[in-house]
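Why do we care about 3D structure at all? Because function follows from shape, and shape follows, mostly, from sequence. That is the central idea of this module. The next example makes it concrete: a single protein chain, its amino acid sequence, and then its structure expressed as tokens.
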Amino acid sequence: MSYYFAIVGTQDNPLFEHEFGTSKQGGDGQPRFSEQARHMNQFIAHSSLDIVEEVQWGTSQMYLKCVDKFFNNYVSCFVTGGNVKFLLLHQPTTPVSTASTRSSTSIGANPTSSQTEEAIKSFMLEVYENWVKATMNPFYRVNMEVRSPIFRQRVAAAGRKYL
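And the structure:
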């Protein structure tokens, strides 16, 4: 499964972006987006912001689960207390068939299974913990892009650990 992770600020501006692939089940951690899909990732993630804003006011949870689907791309969201949104676009390795009577519990095979949702939630919580640490820097201003290589390494490590 390939992943595109974006942090979107309170003014819907991108603060951080990172692409990675699955490290579970023999994956090498490299994203497998086609060249055309790579250009569409930011558009798909940001187009789901309207749905995120509708869903976020209907629940008291920070993790909103899978909020949007665009063809074979699923978008999961986590909203911080400061209204910063963590968007994770995940694309299964094979298209998910809705006609199948058997559901796979593999994280890469079924993007809406409870195992996948739990893995994504754990990933988001770890990234949130690192986000809080990064934004506590006295030189950080609200809605400023995060360029820290340490933060990028920690996001990549969380991706390898959970996804």
